[in-house]
Amino acid sequence: MTHQLGSELLKLRTTRTAAALLLAAAALTLLGTLIEGLSRTAGELAQEDAQRTMFSAGISAVFFATLAGLVVVTEEFRYGTIRPTLLAEPRRRIVLAAKLVVAALTGVVFAVVCVGIAFGAGLTILAARDVHGAVSAAHVAPLVFGTIASSALGAMLGVAVGALIRNQAGAIVAVAAYAFLVDAALFGAIPSVGRFLPGKAGDALAGRPDESLLAPGVGAAVLIAWTLAFVAAAVVRSDRSDV
Predict the structure, then answer these.
(1) In the predicted model, is pLDDT for residue 76 greater than 90?
(2) What is the mean pLDDT of residues 194-210?
(3) Interior/surface letters 90-111, b for 16+ CB within 10 angstroms, e for the rest
(4) Do the Cβ atoms of 129 and 42 come closer than 8 Å?
(5) How far apart are CA 138 and CA 34, in angstroms?
(6) What is the DSSP string of 65-105?
(7) Is 195 helix (H, G, I), strand (E, B) or coil?
């Protein structure tokens, strides 16, 4: 397992895809923070919910971490490197487990960077506009640690989806379509149902200020359940399919 982890980390470090996704996540986080912090009046920005929304721009890490996890698997199938990988380590579950661990670590890195940008830019905006911070410590914890956990779980979900679909373009389209159409549309139409989907459970875990979302603890349980279900399906697909 240790050898396989080292191999997966080496693959990740020697490709540009993860770095490009991290840069995109950072840029989108900064843009979201600036929009939320500069588009409101000083009076509006002084409200706790407005500040929580601004700081929650770090949630952008989750989508891009999911794509990073997906790429960890699909690039192997795209370039045919999955065969030498399995020749070096024939135990497919070990290979999948190593990819899940590396993806989770990648998700943590994405979240730390994006949360740092959101809070750094957000606090700068508050200081520049002479607005006092109104977010309580009870809400800061989910915004920071909840986003990190959500990003790690999202990256693991990406690995599972990549193992199930395998085709890189198809997997990326499927994840993007789900995130922007199914997840958002169902939550908008039927919040009581949509809040149990993976994306909205992740938003709840990350402490986004929306009364229709689940509580952070419940969101964590739901997202973990989704992740375990997809990982189990990926294990079955990996065990029973040719490469």
Answers:
(1) no
(2) 90
(3) eebeebbbbbbbbbbbbbbbbb
(4) yes
(5) 24
(6) HHHHHHHHHHHHHHHTTHHHHHHH---HHHHHHHHHHHHHH
(7) coil
Question: How much is the pTM?
Answer: 0.91
For the stretch 92-138, pLDDT in tens is: 888 899 999 999 999 999 999 999 999 999 999 999 998 998 888 88
The token pair at 79 is 């370039």
Separation of alpha carbons 160 and 96, rounded Å: 9
Task: Evaluate if residue 182 carries a pLDDT over 80.
Answer: yes
Sequence letter at residue 69: G
| 243: pLDDT strictly greater than 70 | no
CB 197 within 8 A of CB 182: yes
- For residues 70 and 214, give the distance between their C-alpha atoms in angstroms, rounded to a whole number: 26
**Integer Cα distance of 3 and 7 in angstroms:** 6
**Alpha carbons 152 and 158: distance in angstroms, whole number:** 10
List the structure tokens of 146: 């909840």
The first and second tokens of residue 76, run together, are 């192997």
Return all residues near 178 (Cβ < 8 A) that are at least 6 apart. 199
- Cβ neighbors of 84 (< 8 A, separation 6 or more) are none
Q: What is the pLDDT of residues 8-57, one digit of tens each?
A: 777 777 778 889 999 999 999 999 999 999 998 888 999 998 999 999 99
25 within 8 A of 65, measured Cβ to Cβ: yes
